[in-house]
């Protein structure tokens, strides 16, 4: 079996695009397409259906991708074992998170401890981040309220409250807190489905027996901020993500438990990878220093 052809297939299946896969592998798109076509011809199978400018993986392609996910994970593990003999002088760590506020300081510390490790960061909502981990597009994730899953190894990082926020011209701009029932007659701006911020907030509403009359769904944290600043409604955000925007004013919700617990997690089968283990050791050190509250 031709390893380059399998690698080409794996990249296209993982990225969902020949163009993106070519960028990841640093090859030309015609070269990549030729490798996938050669693999299909050798075994007499169709791995992708070309639909206009896009592609759709076939059933046999999905089955093969499940195998290549494990194959390349084992290759990475083997590489990490060999690198560990060099005292973590080199290696890589791909970290995904739902926001930069916790991950950036942690990676800054990790980089100082292990300057030879190359790392990358990617961001998305919590659902996207977790799915990316299962698809092995990242090695470690940092996100709130991870549910128990036998596939995961997770450690608590930081407990954090959510707040609501309004624009500076809002009648509540002089207040420090509100009751959750006061939100009923206001338009509430929510993140997209899959956002943990939204899940926590909606759970608190349900527990309090509160039903909102009007909501507006916006698909990014930055867009929610701009909508609130423009007076379109009231936003909800983790306190650490609120920032110092002088156009906005934050308020606590005093009569419900509105908080999440940030976790760091990896696939259980990869937790003993030297680089991943070093990152978790750093988290444990932070926890011992009182980072989790």
Automatic annotation (TrEMBL):
The keyword Cell membrane does not apply. It comes from the Bacteria. Residues 1-58 form the HTH lysR-type domain. InterPro entries: LysR_HTH_N, LysR_subst-bd, WH-like_DNA-bd_sf, WH_DNA-bd_sf. Keywords: DNA-binding, Transcription, Transcription regulation. PROSITE patterns: HTH_LYSR. The keyword Nucleotidyltransferase does not apply. Belongs to the LysR transcriptional regulatory family. This is LysR substrate-binding domain-containing protein. It comes from Kiloniella laminariae.
């Amino acid at each position: 079996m031709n390893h380059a052809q399998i690698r080409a297939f794996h990249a296209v299946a993982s990225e969902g695009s020949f163009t993106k896969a070519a960028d990841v592998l640093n090859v030309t798109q015609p070269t990549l397409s030729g490798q996938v076509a050669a693999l299909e011809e050798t075994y007499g199978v169709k791995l992708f259906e070309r639909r206009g400018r896009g592609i759709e993986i076939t059933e046999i392609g999905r089955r093969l991708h499940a195998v290549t996910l494990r194959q390349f994970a084992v290759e990475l593990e083997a590489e990490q074992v060999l690198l560990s003999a060099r005292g973590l002088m080199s290696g890589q760590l791909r970290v995904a998170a739902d926001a930069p506020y916790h991950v950036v300081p942690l990676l800054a510390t990790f980089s100082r401890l292990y300057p030879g490790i190359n790392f990358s960061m990617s961001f998305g909502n919590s659902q996207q981040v977790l799915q990316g981990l299962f698809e092995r597009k990242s090695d470690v994730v940092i996100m709130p309220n991870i549910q128990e899953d036998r596939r995961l190894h997770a450690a608590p990082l930081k407990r954090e409250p959510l707040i609501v926020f309004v624009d500076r011209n809002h009648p509540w701009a002089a207040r420090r807190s509100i009751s959750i029932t006061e939100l009923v007659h206001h338009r509430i701006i929510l993140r997209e489905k899959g956002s943990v911020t939204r899940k926590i907030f909606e759970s608190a509403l349900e527990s309090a027996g509160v039903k909102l009359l009007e909501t507006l769904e916006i698909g990014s944290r930055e867009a929610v901020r701009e909508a609130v600043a423009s007076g379109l409604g009231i936003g909800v955000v983790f306190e650490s993500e609120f920032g110092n925007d002088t156009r906005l004013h934050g308020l606590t919700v005093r009569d419900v438990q509105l908080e999440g617990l940030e976790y760091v997690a990896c696939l259980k089968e990869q937790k003993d990878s030297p680089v991943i283990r070093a990152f978790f050791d750093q988290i444990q050190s932070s926890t011992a220093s009182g980072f989790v509250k």
